[in-house]
Amino acid sequence: MPSSARRQGIAALLIVVSAWGLTWPINKVILGSLSPLWAVTLRSAIATVALFALTAWRGRIAWPPAGDLPVLVSITLLHMVGFNLLANWGLGLVPTGRTVVLAYTTPLWVTPGAALFLHDPLTARRVVGVLVGLAGLVTLFNPLTFDWSDRTVVWGNLAILAGALLWAASILHIRAHRWRSTPFALMPWETLLATLLLAPIALATGAPTEVTWSPSFTLLLLYLGIVGTAVTYWAAATASRLLPAVTTSLGLLATPVVSAVTAALWLGEPLTLQLLVAIALGLGAVAIGATDRSGGAGARLDSPSAWPHSPAMADYHAAADIPAPSKAELLRALRSSRDEVVALISALPPAALEEGRYESGWNGRQILAHIASIEWSYPRLIDIARTPPAAEAAAPPTREMKGGNDSYNDRQVAKREHLPVAELLAEFEKNRAATIQAVEAADEALFARRIRSAGGVVGPLALVFHQIAVAHVLGHARDIAGRDARPAAGDPTHHG
Predict the structure, then answer these.
(1) pLDDT category, 36, cuts 50, 70, 90?
(2) CATH number among 3.30.420.100, 1.10.10.10, 3.90.550.60, 1.20.120.450, domain 311-481
(3) Distance (Å, rounded) from C-alpha 111 to C-alpha 461?
(4) What's the chain's average pLDDT?
(5) Closest of 307, 432, 308, 427 to residue 368, by C-alpha
(6) Which of 319, 316, 434, 452 is nearest to 384 (CA)?
(7) What is the dihedral of CA 361, 365, 369, 375, to 10 degrees?
(8) Among candidates 474, 314, 3, 467, which has minimal Cα distance to 459?
(9) What is the pLDDT of residue 26?
(10) What is the pLDDT of residues 71-116, one digit of tens each?
(11) pTM for this one?
């Protein structure tokens, strides 16, 4: 990953951790003057305005695709309304640190849910993670220290746990859903729907009368809607796109710590040994699950902003166990994949290319613009292989795009996304012809040399070339066409 992209990802992750960490104590203060219903309603309304403004600034406002409406409604009801209402009600009755720990039990419920509904492997590591997390819950509800006779406190704790279950259900649906748009693109519509559902109920209960609308109170409320929701979800989406999933998941574990420490320093809430042990066990459980390499939905807390990849695109990223093709096999794959891309795109009705997909929020036409614009760069891989071999222990040679891959791709797509499909396909075919000519002219020995692409794919030139120019391109084309079939015999993405 280019260092500039990594720095941007880390900066975004720091914004998420600090902003979300401060959100819980600020919410606690707000609940001293507003009911949970009004607090969530006003936060949703402010976030709606901020999210639409942010989306307009990025030039990405679009109606939600019909295929994404089920998950849009699900996230709204389960997370935006259900979780937020229950968590706010519990937060009004339970100390901030304890509330955050209970809310962050969500991954404990995602793990068995993913095994049951998504058929994810319930590995020994994940079972250990769940057991460690449950030990943290037992610590919090130790009958020697928890007052079970105080029904208000009991109901407050149960409300937060119920909210965590709803959040887990939302994550499971997010993981199972086949996305037409992106999670962040739907976010303004989710907060808008939540506001439309909550506002009439809140108004029916009567306007809040005990609020002193001081500048400080107003700023705190604006913080919850703008920074604590709109900016934070944008930063979470950015961090998830630019950083490895494990880095993002483990980084988010600092959020409860920030909340508990802030509540202690600002609100005077005690940092008891029991709370510290529960935090350590709960976050340890999430860390165990987040570092499980077996695949599947897992228990990531950054799920609402994760960018889904279809099986076709997953093939491009998983290259470790694929044998490198010969030069002749590579040339055959380049020609057959070219023909498949042209056939797939040409057969699509125009409306299909206007649908949103997943990468950077691009629709089908923008992905086609990406395919056409990036093709010219593939012969550069041969130039990388011609770089004199480094010492055995050194990293393989590479060349990075100016400003990083994401910035380069965005610029190139922006230049072409208005072009007709025929022009984009013509550019792709012209550049593919140049790619084939470059491969034909290259020495056979070069294809065994180990290189690293600008996107981080490492291996012999022949394998890297195949993964990027064949599997990557076909993955995009199949995404546009809606085909998720795994490679079969004779498929150009499978050369072995």
Answers:
(1) very high
(2) 1.20.120.450
(3) 39
(4) 80
(5) 427
(6) 452
(7) 100
(8) 467
(9) 95
(10) 899 999 999 999 999 999 999 999 998 898 888 888 788 888 888 8
(11) 0.63
Task: Give the whole-angstrom CA distance, residue 151 versus residue 134.
Answer: 22
Contact 484, 358 (CB under 8 A): no
CA dist 237 and 400 (Å) reads: 23
Instruction: Residue count of the chain, please give it.
Output: 496
Where do runs of H (alpha helix) occur along 118-204? 124-140, 151-176, 183-204
Q: How far does CA 1 lie from the centroid of its chain?
A: 17
Q: How far is CA 89 from CA 86, 94, 95, 385, in A?
A: 5, 9, 12, 61
Cα–Cα separations (whole angstroms), residue 30 to 39, 227, 391, 432: 7, 15, 60, 59
d(CA 271, CA 279): 11
**Domain boundaries in the chain?**
3-305, 311-481
Q: What does 277-318 look like in DSSP terms, one character per residue? A: HHHHHHHHHHHHHHT-TT-SSTT-TTGGG-----HHHHHHH-
pLDDT digits (tens, 9 = 90+) for 274-288: 888 888 887 787 777
What does the alpha-carbon distance between residue 126 and residue 298 come to, in Å, rounded to a whole number? 8
CB 493 within 8 A of CB 337: yes
Contacts of 373 (CB under 8 A, 6+ apart): 409, 412, 413, 415, 416, 427
Residue whose structure tokens are 């180990």: 450
Alpha-carbon distance of 94 to 269, in angstroms, equals 11
| Cα–Cα distance for residue pair 454/11, rounded to 1 Å | 22
Per-residue CA distances from 408 to 306, 309, 405 (Å): 21, 20, 5
